[in-house]
Amino acid sequence: MKKPSTYFFTEESSSLNEFLSFGLSLDCVVFGYHEGEVQVLLVERSVEPYKGSWALVGDLVHPESDLASSANRILENLTGLSGIFMEQFHTFDAVDRHPLGRVVTVGYYSLVQSKHYHPVASAWAKSTRWFSISELPELAFDHKEILDKGIQTLKRRVRYRPVGFELLPSKFTLGQLQSLYEALLSEKFDKPNFRKKILRMDLVTPLNEYQENVSHRPAKLYAFDERRYNLLRKEGFAFEL
Amino acid sequence: MKKPSTYFFTEESSSLNEFLSFGLSLDCVVFGYHEGEVQVLLVERSVEPYKGSWALVGDLVHPESDLASSANRILENLTGLSGIFMEQFHTFDAVDRHPLGRVVTVGYYSLVQSKHYHPVASAWAKSTRWFSISELPELAFDHKEILDKGIQTLKRRVRYRPVGFELLPSKFTLGQLQSLYEALLSEKFDKPNFRKKILRMDLVTPLNEYQENVSHRPAKLYAFDERRYNLLRKEGFAFEL
DNA sequence: TCAAAAGTGTTCCGAATACACCCATGC
DNA sequence: GCATGGGTGTATTCGGAACACTTTTGA
């Protein structure tokens, strides 16, 4: 029934066009973090299919551009953010995942500080807002599956790569860093041990600044050591807690 | 210049066909292991483009089938193997990666015992054989990049998931397991410590059988505990050595 | 008897764990 | 003063690293 494979596009083989009939899209799980809560950015669809449903930040890829630049375009269009951390994690290709054609989608995720994002619903979105990861609505297409896989990927990657630079302000306290990890991993850590572990890694450098206007002892502020951060990201590291 | 995004395929939006113009292919890095050496299965191209070059085991995906089944089809066609471990690791989408059209390829890897594979060059391949990972030829397309990313992925995954079931005979010695890990990670380990670590994980169960016809003390044979193996694969684990 | 790999035990040390405790600030 | 979160010190335990040693086989 099926024609023989034509991977090499020779003249003898069957028509090239037969195989150039896929659509390619990109869906990005935009993770946000704000005051101890992990969130995801969703957009509400104003058109069919799945009109009225919430969906991940995604769009079709133009045939003349690649995923990386499409990702930036899509995120900028929808969120006004640019130059942010973004990483591919899985490709979803179920034959019937899109009701109107054979569209394969590549899943990305990105990490941002929710409070720095001011949502602007674009032409084809009715609205857009942050959802807490613990109270998500029904999602369009197979976006639930994509989101779950994204969460799973993030949780795994957090354990052997440094994450946080993207989610915290440039100056932060060790308490904030701990809260971030606790939120990401849904797990509580021992404060003294967490500090010891972090400080031993030389990942952060203390500043000579302190919190202000807090009704408790002000915490010392820290910043990520970018050199070391990128080194650890490249090499990987074990973050056992 | 670009038309507005048409992710939702509404009537008002530009033509759907404009976006259904991608080709989708699958390239699999088939890792083999035999007597302490990690290998990769390559096929020699008998047609243009890249005629005469070596390439990964790959093919176009038919519009009516998905990646998982295509992967099985391609691997079976080319190697006669079926039902083997196979996992997606990255999607490659450079605009110019294929000289004859916009073809996006999804990278998979699989792990097999080289000696169980009897290569049969199919219609469009001149030949096919195993290459040691340390002496690879020039590769067609961007397959060098795909292979490198595959190796990188495998090395990383080995560290936090059990791997080996696929690469060792059903009964094996701890020495063989150690050699496997040493080959995969290009690193030597201390024998007593390696054994202690492995045995503590309860990943393998000792059999009441021993090696035969070896000119040294015969080693006890072990088998993977499949239940525990799958559990650890799902949960992940830290394999620090 | 020797080579070769299997297999065991022991010491050392650093790091994870589990605490108790003190400090600085706003109210 | 007291609630709150910041910050430190310590005793214990566990596991990794290093290494010496014994065992069993074929040749």
Provide a descriptive summary of the structure in words:
Chain A has two domains: 23-159, Nucleoside Triphosphate Pyrophosphohydrolase, CATH 3.90.79.10; 161-234, Orthogonal Bundle (Arc Repressor Mutant, subunit A). The radius of gyration of chain A is 21 Å and the shape is elongated. Chain A has five helices and nine strands. Chain A is an alpha+beta fold and 241 residues long. In chain A, the strands form two sheets. In chain A, strands 1, 2, 3, 4, 5, 6 and 7 form a seven-stranded mixed beta sheet that branches. A two-stranded antiparallel ribbon of chain A has the order 8-9. Chains A and B meet through strand 1, strand 4, helix 1, strand 5 and strand 6 of A and strand 1, strand 4, helix 1, strand 5 and strand 6 of B. The first copy, chain A, binds a DNA duplex (27 and 27 nucleotides) through helix 4.
Question: Any chance you could write out the topology, listing elements then pairs?
Answer:
The structure is a homodimer of 241-residue chains.
Chain A: E1 23-34, E2 37-45, E3 54-55, E4 57-60, H1 67-79, E5 86-92, E6 103-113, E7 125-132, H2 143-158, H3 174-185, H4 191-200, E8 204-210, E9 220-224, H5 226-235
Parallel strand pairs in A: 1-6
Antiparallel strand pairs in A: 1-2, 1-4, 2-3, 2-7, 5-6, 8-9
The structure holds a DNA duplex (27 and 27 nucleotides).
